[in-house]
Write a structure and sequence with these properties.
This protein is an alpha/beta fold and about 160 residues long. It has 5 helices and 4 strands, in the order βαβαβαβαα. Strand 1, helix 1 and strand 2 form a beta-alpha-beta unit. The radius of gyration is 15 Å and the shape is globular.
Length: about 160
């Protein structure tokens, strides 16, 4: 199953989601990420805390959702509120679209310890959702039931 994570700037939350899904997806899940207005670079702390956690950062880059049509996702997940409110490209078509809002750890101001805690908390939430997503992907559900179950994971 192919998952496309969308965040407006594609520099933190969607990148974390891509990396963690590919790491914990057990070969069942293949993830990519993109943004409607990508900034062109991954936030340095995103890379730092992924590496620190033993998660590969190879190939991670801030890119536009216009470049992802060939990826042909089965599910599109928005992870920031502004991306959830944007009009999606037509090529998303009937793809399942869900919103898994995450607080932006790159916006935390404070000590290095506080910033680290924010990133690790976001990564913990993503990891939990990925494991639940993987379990759902292994079940034989209708698209409607699958979409409903995915939406429940954000609660």
């Amino acid at each position: 199953m192919r998952i496309l994570y969308i965040c407006t700037h594609n520099r933190c939350r969607s990148i974390l989601s891509e990396a963690l899904t590919n790491h914990y997806g057990g070969g069942t899940l293949k993830a990519a990420s993109a943004g409607s207005q990508p900034v062109g670079e991954v936030h340095p702390l995103t890379l730092k805390y992924l590496k620190e956690s033993g998660i590969s950062i190879k190939g991670l880059a801030s890119k536009s959702w216009d470049d992802m049509e060939r990826f042909a996702p089965d599910v599109v997940v928005t992870v920031c509120d502004s991306a959830a409110g944007e009009a999606c490209p037509l090529w998303f078509g009937n793809t399942i679209k869900i919103h898994w809002g995450l607080s932006d750890p790159s916006k935390v101001e404070g000590s290095d310890k506080e910033k680290r805690a924010a990133f690790l908390k976001a990564m913990e939430i993503i990891q939990s959702r990925v494991k639940a997503l993987q379990a759902l992907a292994d079940e034989n559900m209708s698209n409607k039931d699958f979409e409903y179950a995915l939406k429940q994971l954000a609660r």
